[in-house]
Amino acid sequence: MKILLVDDSRAIAMVTTARLESFGHEVRHAINGQTAIEMFQSDSFDLILMDIEMPGMNGFETTTRIRALEGHEPWAWTPIIFVTATDSDTNLVTAIEAGGDDFISKSSPESVLQAKMKAMTRIAALRSRLAQANGKLQDQANHDGLTGLYNRRAMDLRIDTLWETAVHAGRPFSLLMIDVDNFKKYNDHYSHQAGDECLKAVADCLEGVARQVNEDKMAPGVFAARYGGEEFAIVIPDAAPGVHVGIAMTVVEAVAGLNLPHEWNEQWGKVTVSVGAVCMAPASGWVKETFRIADDLLYQAKAAGRNRFEA
Ligand code: GH3
Ligand code: MG
Ligand code: MG
Ligand code: MG
Ligand code: MG
Predict the structure, then answer these.
(1) Structural contact between residues 100 and 52, judged by C-beta atoms closer than 8 angstroms
(2) Which among 10, 190, 205, 305 has most CB atoms closer than 10 A?
(3) 228 CA to middle of ligand 1, Å?
(4) What ligand 1 atom has the least distance to the C-alpha of 180?
(5) What is the interface pTM, i.e. ipTM, of the complex?
(6) What residue's CA is closest to ligand 1, atom 17?
(7) Handedness of CA 149, 152, 157, 162 (dihedral sign)
(8) pLDDT tens, 207-266?
(9) Whether 258 contacts 201, CB under 8 Å
(10) If DSSP codes are grouped into helix, strand and coil, which group holds residue 69?
(11) What's the CA gap between 29 and 11, in Å, rounded?
(12) Pocket flag, ligand 1, residue 189 (CB < 6 Å)
């Protein structure tokens, strides 16, 4: 375990550190509450051993402040064991109230400290498993299972925030609606499974375009999402007017450039997409209006023969 040892006595800290290190732990010493808080903020620990009596900020107050910094996610919680010279019940109550998890007297035998640390290790392990599971869940909730792109839900949530930002900053907001051409026929003739593979390839291609746009600093924060079915979106939160046209052109060319055979895609003979591209001054409309306009433009691109964009 990586342990933060908070104690105003250098002598005690040296002895305790040596003991803990002999059991294979890694120890950092903070000489007072303020230093402990700073170390806690710049590093992560599996356990904190907290002295009570310290000049300036005592152990209770230090603990209260650390708990306030942690936030409320259960995996952000670091076990704190108070280690004190005065083994009083009042201190124990105050320690737990302040956010401590356990309490041990400095005169307790070695084995007691060991046992308490073992209990905290178990809890720390649960905590990190919880964090991992949550990370996975978050990932699944925000990404489309087939393509790995952001799903509709994540896209909508991000757009809500980006739209607000754009309104406040008076910056334009652009959106590309992208639809695979004659995809029903693709499924009918190549199988639904092949259709899935095709959607993955198109999604990878769109993600590649978004990445390139970001790398080229053409439009920071651009991302691709699966809007639903064979429809995708590229969200362009903050780019000079006109940039969306360049990106729309790149998308159409990049997908056609994959040269995925699609015999039944009318004159093109390969997988293509049609794109509706819109750039809005956020003050002039609502997000819904942006989608409606992009949809209209997409429909025009389809009517004009597909494998093209309208802006
Ligand atoms: P258009 O060029 O006008 O867009 O024609 P289209 O055939 O692409 O449009 P339509 O909306 O008629 O058909 C879309 C098809 O996309 C129908 C649906 O079965 C297919 N599709 C939607 N989601 C998936 C998916 O996850 N996997 C596969 N394989 N097909 C999908
Ligand atoms: Mg002390
Ligand atoms: Mg469609
Ligand atoms: Mg359709
Ligand atoms: Mg389609």
Answers:
(1) no
(2) 205
(3) 10
(4) 8
(5) 0.95
(6) 184
(7) positive
(8) 999 999 999 988 889 999 999 999 999 999 988 889 999 999 999 999 999 999 999 998
(9) yes
(10) helix
(11) 11
(12) no
